[in-house]
TrEMBL record:
GO terms for molecular function: D-lactate dehydrogenase (NAD+) activity; NAD binding. This is 2-hydroxyacid dehydrogenase. Signal peptide: none annotated. SUPFAM superfamilies: Formate/glycerate dehydrogenase catalytic domain-like, NAD(P)-binding Rossmann-fold domains. The keyword Cell membrane does not apply. It comes from the Bacteria. It comes from Streptomyces roseus. Gene3D superfamilies: NAD(P)-binding Rossmann-like Domain.
Length: 332
């Protein structure tokens, strides 16, 4: 059986092909285009389709896929807020995700963003390329003794907290349930308002849902310290981007590191360098000297991508064997 994989990055392609070849019995056709309403007809005749995190799996796309004979979707990500599961279940489609991969990939990258904006790494690098070795405007801060606020203390949040503990920081956390491992490290769980008010560094590690959409809204941003650092390596929709621009224009925040953006679909993972920028909010964000924006790459390590692909192969094997697992989203 041949499987069709959408949105495959260049570094990812040989890993996917090798993994399915090692599993035997299956071939995989890799496409660099993303699964959208326009590209969904390409999947006609493919029983199994694999999608990436930025795929459009709305009801309309799912119906197109089902009409072409697709019965199983194997999403290569943990998040699945892009999938209309109600429609998938009504269509009788099997949908899986990757419920676990290396939490260190994202946690370490979140810290990379935090330190990049704190120590002005991008600005310093740009200067030295022009042989400008002045230090003016590059002063950062020690992290030791300062307070970090972690929203979401699951596997990734816990890994981020362990690094913060290594820096010698005071630990504040917020989540629907406390993580005993974080408590053992000395984390104090508080309400969101206290976390926003008290933290010198706020890092987001939450899934995107109706309850977490714009959890960092205009009100939350206003309560944060003027010299706070804000990092988001989870989902773009957790932050109200327009409200963030307003606060940045007012000269607030020591630094902001964003690996995700709420309107990133159709932008991230693509080369738009020769096109006019139509997203005014993103265009404004990247102009601030205290903001670093990266292209949803926090998960992108050899270790994590390898684990994602291995789980995807297992999900396909489970579907063909009539099995379900913790990765199965539909049927429920």
């Amino acid at each position: 059986m041949e499987i069709l994989a959408f949105g495959v990055q260049g570094d990812e392609r040989p890993l996917i092909e090798e993994a399915f070849a090692a599993a035997g019995q299956h071939e995989v056709r890799c496409l660099d285009v993303f699964l959208t309403e326009d590209t969904a007809p390409i999947a006609a005749g493919y029983e199994i389709v694999s999608s990436s995190v930025n795929a459009d799996l709305s009801g309309r796309v799912l119906r197109t896929l089902a009409g072409g004979g697709t019965k199983m979707i194997a999403q290569r990500s943990t998040g699945f807020n892009n999938i209309d599961l109600d429609v998938a279940r009504r269509l009788g489609m099997t949908v899986s995700r990757v419920s676990y991969y290396s939490p260190y990939s994202v946690a370490e990258f979140a810290w990379t963003l935090a330190m990049a904006v704190n120590r002005r790494i991008v600005r310093a690098s740009n200067r030295t390329r022009d042989f400008d070795f002045r230090l003016t405007g590059l002063m950062g801060r020690d992290m030791r003794g300062r307070t970090v606020g972690v929203l979401g203390t699951g596997r990734i949040g816990e890994a981020f907290t362990r690094i913060a503990h290594g820096f010698g920081m005071n630990l504040l956390g917020w989540d629907v349930a406390e993580n005993p491992a974080c408590v053992e490290l000395g984390m104090k769980y508080v309400d969101k308002e206290e976390l926003f008010t008290s933290a010198d560094l706020v890092s987001l590690h939450l899934p995107l849902s109706q309850s977490t959409h714009h959890i960092v809204d205009a009100a939350a941003l206003r309560t944060m310290k003027d010299d706070a650092i804000l990092v988001n390596s989870s989902r773009g929709g957790l932050i109200d981007s327009e409200a963030l621009v307003t606060e940045l224009r007012a000269g607030r925040f020591e630094g902001v590191g964003l690996d995700v953006y709420e309107a990133e679909t159709g932008l991230f993972f693509l080369d738009k360098s020769l096109e006019a920028v139509e997203d005014d909010t993103l265009a404004r964000l990247v102009t601030f000297p205290n903001v670093v924006v990266t292209s949803h790459q926090a998960y992108y390590t050899h270790d994590a991508v390898g684990q994602i692909i291995e789980a995807t192969v297992r999900n396909v094997q489970d579907y063909l064997a009539g099995r379900s697992s913790q990765n199965t989203l539909s049927p429920a």
